[in-house]
Amino acid sequence: MRVLVVEDEQLLADAVAEGLRRESFAVDVAYDGDGALQRLGVNEYDVLVLDRDLPSVGGDDVCRWVSAELPETRILMLTAASAVLDRVDGLSLGADDYLGKPFAFAELVARVRALGRRARPATPPVLERGDLRLDPNRREVFRAGHYVALTRKEFAVLEELLRAGGAVVSAEQLLERAWDEHIDPFTNVLRVTVMTLRRKLGDPPVIETVAGVGYQIP
Q1: C-alpha to C-alpha distance for 62 and 33, rounded to whole angstroms
Q2: Where is 74: in which H helix or E strand?
Q3: What is the DSSP string of 100-125?
């Protein structure tokens, strides 16, 4: 799942982004409305975590634009204002959910996950293919009933492949959804990650390479 965090308090923005990365999200950050619109115009995001009080272009304007132009991107609006009328106002702008500051990080993660599920075609809460089982909420993977310990990026790549339901996923799509905008498109990090995934998942191999196209779990 790819997330854009837009927050003008840099320490808070970076802390939220790093926390979401630890949960296996691919996260980009913008510190004002202009930066947010630039990234939204280039990248596809499942969820936008948007502070309402932003410099330059305000959070309300960003919210309206995303609602009109990118209806598949879900918006979680953050604000220090917690009155009912403020929440209603934020939702009326097109936000899908609303979270007041200060907030518990565990609640933020839960809300982002819930919005991410709504941003994509419906999939089962637990992803299974053959003897492979992945639980996104618990961040657990089992192969033939045995627990498989994965790194954050290995988990993210495997989740994307399982969500594809047997279809081929291109290297570009995997890099975009499991890493972030700073990833070098010519890096071999994806090839190495898939190689270690295959080793950890054991035999018979479940991830196939489709030459010149990408990867799949048939």
Answers
A1: 6
A2: strand 74-79
A3: ESS--HHHHHHHHHHHHHHHS----S
Cis status of the peptide bond prior to 204, with omega within 30 of 0: yes
Quote the pTM value: 0.63
> 48 to each of 31, 37, 89, how far by Cα in Å?
13, 11, 18
DSSP state at residue 203: S
Query: How many helices (H) does the chain have, and how many strands (E)?
Result: 8, 12
Q: Which long-range contacts (CB under 8 A, 24 or more apart) does 183-189 make?
A: 189/153
Q: Residue 55 carries which side chain, given as an amino acid letter?
A: P
Cis before residue 55, ω within 30 degrees of 0? no
Mind listing the pLDDT tens digit of every residue in the chain (218 residues)? Answer: 889 999 999 999 999 999 998 888 889 999 999 999 999 988 889 999 999 888 888 888 999 999 989 988 999 998 876 555 565 665 677 889 888 888 899 999 999 988 987 766 555 678 989 999 999 878 899 999 999 999 888 998 999 899 888 899 888 888 877 876 666 666 688 889 999 999 999 999 999 998 888 899 98
Which residue do the tokens 């990118």 mark?
70
Q: Are 2 and 178 in contact (CB under 8 A)?
A: no
Contacts of 70 (CB under 8 A, 6+ apart): 40, 45
